[in-house]
Structures are given as C-alpha cells and as structure tokens.
Write a structure and sequence with these properties.
With 277 residues, this protein is mainly beta. It has four helices and 20 strands. It starts with 8 loop residues before the first helix and ends with a strand. About 16% of the residues have low confidence.
Amino acid sequence: MVKHESWSEQDILDLPPEESDDFDRKGGRLFDEVEDKVLTTIAKALSAFANSGGGSLVLGVKDDRSIDGIPAMKGRATIRDWLEQKVPHLLDYPLADFRVHTVLRREQSQIPIGREIIVIDVGDSAAAPHQSARDHLYYHRQGGRSVPAKHFYLDLLRQRLTHPVLTLGMHGIQTHAAQELNGGIYFIENLTFVVRNVGRIAAHEWAISLRNVEHPTDGFFDRHRLRFEYEHEFQIPYSSRWYRTQATNLAGTGFEANPTARVPGILPGGRTYFQHH
C-alpha cells in the first residue's frame, strides 16, 4: 500500500461504497465516546492494517458515505496533532510507518464547520505483527473488517521479517552560547537525537540525513561538527547532508554517542544517541 502525499475531499467521495481490506470508515459519532473507547477502536484498525500490508483509516465519514466529520480540536491541539502523538503508542511494537492527513476541503465542502475528516495511512510494516496496546490482541483485515488474527497468520508475518526498522526522535536541546552576527543573533545549540531500532532485525549499515541546514558562511560556525562515536570519532562537516556508518546496529542494547562510548551497536528494542553541534 502506497501512502498518499495528501487527501482531498474529492478523494474521500471517490472511495468505493463498500469498505475493503485496505480502507475503513469511522463516523464522527465515535468521538462522542470516552477517549478510552476512541483509542481502542483506532488501535484495532491500525493493528489490522499494519498486519495486512497497510491501509487507510478514514475518520469522520459514516458507513453510508455521508460526512459528519470529527472535532477539529482536542484540547488546545488540533485533532491531527493529537492523533500523531497517540498513534505510535497504540500498538506494540510501536507503529513507525504511518501518516496522519487532514483532508483538504472542496470549495463547496460537505465537511461541517468546526469539524474535519482525518485519514491515517498505514504502511506495510516491517515490524509486524503489531498487537493493539489497548486490548492486547492482534488483528488483520478480512472481508473488509478488522478481525482477530489466528496464530498461523502471525507465524507467517514473523517469518517474513527481512530488514530493521529505525526511528529518529529529538532527545534534548542545550544552548551553549549566543552571539550577534551579520545583523542577527545566532545560537550555538547542542541537539541530541535518539535512533531506535523498533524492528527485530539488526541494522548492519544505516545513514543519518540532515536536511535544510543553514549557517553563516564567514567561518564563525566552521568548527561545529556532527559527531558520532563508534570505536573512534567521525568528524562530519556541519553542512554535510549524510552521515553513513558501517557500524552494526544490533538488537536489545543502546548507547549514547560520546567520547567514551564503546559498544557493538543497537539491537531491536534498543536505541542509539547522537549529537548535532
């Protein structure tokens, strides 16, 4: 299943009348329920899609294809941001391959004011099988429905594992200095990221991509580097976009990138820290 770059209201209207193994609809009334039921229902669908090659969960469209939408806000957060924070932790192993979309309205929109249609695209997860963290059951798609998966189906999923699943997140930010330069104020920041192996296969070769990096050109920041410690120190120019390592990232352990770290790598479920100066 190829995840969409975006979803439009017309895309929603063009979906088939009947739900299939790669898409499911949930009406907005779901969000009238208590939060626990909302998350349990979403977790069931996401587990099923992740264990069945991927799919799309459409929130805010009834089974009869009429649009009622879901609330645009959850507390102070947009409903999209709230779901993006919740989705990864609704499954075990945590879901990494997904996108949350706010559907783009037509000029003459059927989506009620103050409400949205949200689509959660789920990829064919390499970390499958995933169980719902809410009811601790494994699901898959069958006949357009999310149903509990039988043991033989889960065994087939486990046997197909072929590559690791690495995720990247921000771990911390520390400001070291600030200086006026070229009419602006520039900060020297120490950004610490964490790379987690959420799959069950060791990563023997992997890369970090830095994008949209900007810095002054007069040499003020030339001494700042991306540093990663593995047996010896690698110095990568600040403007470099790629850092590549031959270091094996195994399962079950983790280490922090610092001048004294000496460990073999990360195993599935483990993590690696690196710092961007």
